[in-house]
Structure formats: C-alpha cells, structure tokens
Amino acid sequence: MDNIFDITYTDEILARIENLNINSEPQWGKMDVSQMLAHCSSFQDIAMGYSLPPRGWLGILVGRFAKPIFYNDKPLVHNMSTIPSILITSKKDFEIERDKLKQKIITFQKNGPDACTRHPHPFFGSLTSEQWGKGIYKHLDHHLKQFGV
C-alpha cells in the first residue's frame, strides 16, 4: 500500500492536487472541489494531532474491527460516512484551501511517522504511524479520484 511518508507518493498527491481547478466536478458525493480540499485539510489536522474529535459510540463498538479498511489496498467506497466535525458544507475559497492542504501534506510528510498523533482516530481508534501514513494516502487518493485526478 502506498504511504504518504514516502516522498514519491507525497509528490504524486501534490501533483494531482495541482491538476484540480475551481471547475473540477465530483464524480460522486455532495462536496464541491473547495469543500473537498477543506475536508482533506481538516483530516490532516486530526492525523497531526491539531484536532482531537471525540470517539463516537459506534466507533468504540466496531471501529477496531473495521480499522483495516482505512489502510488496506482496497479502495474506499463512494459516499462513505465521515467524521461529523470535518463534514464541510460552507462555501470555501479554492485557492486558499488548495494551498492550505498542500502545506499540511508537506508538513506531515516532513515531520515523519514519529509526529503522528497518538490520539485515537474518532472511528477506527488507535492507529500506528504506518497505518496513519497509508490511511492518509488512501483518503487523499479517494478524494482526488472523486474529482477525476
């Protein structure tokens, strides 16, 4: 599985983000491209420990059993539910959100595995830095495919 801590995959993701534009249309889902970028940026905040959403009861009950879907080789399903605090519905500025996400990805990659949060994922629970690295790549790849890049 590809891992965002490998610079090759970081560079690939950053190049794909550059291929987005304000008119990029989703192939599924309700977010526009600017909202998707803000959503991915908010998810980066969780992985970096800047945002600490609480665990929901469903995650506590089944998250550890579902955890491999976050970092295995199978693509994420379309229209999967998301963490409520990072569900973006307000209007966002494309350029600002694109730059913000790119900077967070670069920082996350440069900080390396040791800087991953130790706080549990709100649904999946405790993750190793390797699982975070694979999951971050998989999450970004999912949303970039959503917008055709």
Automatic annotation (TrEMBL):
It comes from the Bacteria. It holds the Pfam family DUF1569. This is DUF1569 domain-containing protein. It comes from Oceanobacillus jordanicus.
